[in-house]
Amino acid sequence: MTGKRVHSRGTLRPATARGFSLIELLVAIAVFLIVSSAAFTLFNRQQVLLTQQQGLAGLNIGLRNALTQIQIDAVNAANGLVLGAYVPAWPVGATIFNQNPASACNNATTFQYSSTCFDTLNIILADPLTPTCNLAANLNTSTASTVNVVPSTGTASTYAGNFKTGDTLLVVSGNGSPFTTITLTANGTASGSNIALHFTSTSAAGINPKDSPPPPTGTGLMITTDGLASDLGVNYYQNTPTTDWVIRLAPITYYVDTTNSNDPKLMRQVYGGTADVVMDQVVGFKVGAALVNDSTDNYYYNASAANATNGGYNNQFTQIRSIRVSLMARTTPNGTSSYRNQFDGGPYQVLGGSIVVNPRNLSMNDQ
Q: Are 270 and 311 in a shared domain?
């Protein structure tokens, strides 16, 4: 009898589970760290580039906005000074104070800028809220210190309060020449149908002693300067009471405030108001002018009479027909950055822009 072989059915055990060895674990961690380091390094670099691009984009937008604001104001230079049929033969619509430092005006170590690095632009406008006034009697601005004027519209009691201490008034003959400015020493007061005005007398040549250089070096508008001597005068009214005028000015001044030398700011000062910041971190603000009597169409940048023979415009602001403004600004300085720009070697990026403006009122009498 054939016997059957009996197989024992024992429990099958799986092969022993084998995990990572310590060496394999260390290798895996090392690879992970290398890959992670590379990823974070790339991320950091891209983050720096993104920050730089955002800074440049903001800087570019700021420059465009600032130059646009200057353009809007400058194109209206002399607005309100064209008096209908009595069109002035000049007019003075802009004055420029150029800085010409003999040495570097910025600190290459601290990246700070001083006021001597920047020009100043005055845009001359008539006050739109105050009517032009006629002289009520003969006036010699060098011997008198008071004058009575009559508003061309409205009443004296309505507009006397518009004239404030420190105001600059333009006194101009109906044919546009001569002219001068006077600075009020008291508020205007109504006197019957007249407005009584008190002012600082001019020189015998018609120069207003209060017409000093503009902010930040002074408070004047530079309308009556030695370079304009041939256009200035002191005698007005002279039997033409309806064509000699007194105009309250409301100028707009652009200058750079360096109170914080680490952050120079381009300011827009509307007369009688507070100065507003137009652009911060400014490293360049230069203003030039082209003159109607210049055959080479150059833009001049020097108001000094001593430089008249070599191209300076010698304060002949009645001849200005075009204004060029150049503005440069930087991103916020980063002292920890290894980057250095090629403009002034600072740890920041620099952008610049320029505009040319032809004020429409300044060529009204050109042939």
A: yes
Cα–Cα distance for residue pair 279/315, rounded to 1 Å = 27
Q: Indicate the pLDDT class of residue 84, thresholds 50, 70 and 90.
A: low
The answer on 318 and 214 residing in a single domain is: no
* Domain tally, the chain: 2
Instruction: Answer yes or no: are the C-beta atoms of 179 and 172 closer than 8 Å.
Output: yes
CA–CA gap between residue 113 and residue 258 (Å, rounded): 7
What DSSP designation does 39 have?
H
Query: Considering the domain boundaries, does residue 335 fall inside one?
Result: yes
For residues 16 and 59, give the distance between their C-alpha atoms in angstroms, rounded to a whole number.
Answer: 67
For residues 159 and 232, state if they share a domain: yes
The whole-angstrom separation of Cα 10 and Cα 1 is: 27
Kindly state whether residues 111 and 161 are assigned to the same domain: no
Q: What is the pLDDT of residues 290-335, one digit of tens each?
A: 888 777 777 877 755 444 444 456 667 888 889 999 999 999 888 7
Residue 116 has pLDDT above 90, yes or no: no
Domain boundary among 215, 234, 250: 250
Q: Considering the entire predicted model, what is its pTM? A: 0.82
Residue 169: what pLDDT?
95
Residue 184 to residue 165: CA distance in whole angstroms: 5
Residue 6, pLDDT > 90, answer no
- For strand 133-135 and strand 94-97, is the pairing parallel, antiparallel, or unpaired? unpaired
- Whether residue 13 lies inside any domain: the answer is no
How many residues make up the chain in this entry? 367
Domain region containing 224: 126-250
When computed from its CA atoms, the radius of gyration of the chain, rounded to whole angstroms, is: 35
| pLDDT tens profile 198-226 | 999 999 989 898 887 766 666 788 888 76
* Domain assignment present for 9: no
CA 119/CA 111 separation, integer angstroms = 19
Q: 228 with 330, same domain?
A: no
Q: What is the mean pLDDT of residues 3-29?
A: 65
Taken in order 272, 77, 223, 136, the sign of the CA dihedral is negative
- HEC states along 193-208? CEEEEEECCCCCCCCC
pLDDT of residue 297: 73
Query: Is 364 a domain residue?
Result: yes
CA-to-CA distance for 273 and 239, rounded, in angstroms? Answer: 38
Specify whether 246 is located in the same domain as 290.
Answer: no
Whether residues 132 and 246 fall in one domain: yes
